[in-house]
Design brief:
Elements lengths: L2 H17 L2 H11 L6 H11 L7 H9 L7 H13 L4 E3 L7 E3 L6 E5 L5 E4 L2 H14 L8 E5 L2 H9 L3 H5 L1
Parallel strand pairs: 3-5
Antiparallel strand pairs: 1-2, 3-4
Helix pairs in contact: 1-2, 3-4, 3-5, 4-5
The structure holds zinc ion (ZN) (2 copies).
Length: 171
């Protein structure tokens, strides 16, 4: 995949989100690359491209099944593979044993909570600057990046703080 095409599709999706004609743009993105835009593929794409919680294929399948009862998990996987091939989503293998999907294809970090499994995007211009710097210094064309930080999210930390220590609770 060339960086040029990667960018074109990215801007197509941005335009799509703002144009109020998401289906037309998804259809165009598929057809430009020689894929048929079936209604199931469009529904799966719409779900994934508008979801920022980095869902798994299984989660996408359960959600799309609500409106498209005949959709199969295999169709979800094949559509996700197409979306990845044409550069509209990234496959993430951060949490062990499960692939999650991300429509945010700009350089950003992922904060994975090891307690609740939430995967949060974190963007900072410094990431783009770092990539440009490395790219120039190493004479290396960057087409993807990942920075995965594991820890405890704010919500889980607060829950932990409000739970009295075991010894105190037994008094
Ligand atoms: Zn958490
Ligand atoms: Zn992300």
């Amino acid at each position: 995949m060339s960086i040029g095409l990667f960018k074109i599709d990215y801007y197509l999706i941005i335009t799509m989100t703002n144009s109020g004609d998401p289906e037309g743009s998804i259809i165009k993105a598929f057809r430009n690359r020689g894929y048929r835009a079936t209604s199931q593929r469009i529904a799966i794409s719409r779900y994934i491209l508008s979801n920022h919680e980095h869902p798994t294929a299984q989660k996408a399948y359960l959600e799309v099944k609500k409106t498209h009862p005949t959709v199969s998990l295999a169709t979800v996987y094949s559509t996700l593979k197409i979306l990845n091939d044409i550069g509209l989503v990234m496959e993430l293998n951060i949490s062990q044993g499960e692939t999650r999907y991300d429509p945010n294809i700009e350089a950003h970090a992922h904060l994975l909570c090891i307690q609740c499994g939430s995967l949060i995007d974190w963007s900072d211009p410094i990431m783009g600057e770092l990539i440009s710097k490395v790219s120039a210094a190493a004479n290396f064309t960057v087409i993807g990046s990942s920075l995965d930080l594991k820890g405890i999210c704010d919500g889980c930390r607060r829950k932990g703080d409000s739970t009295p220590p075991r010894a105190a609770a037994n008094d």
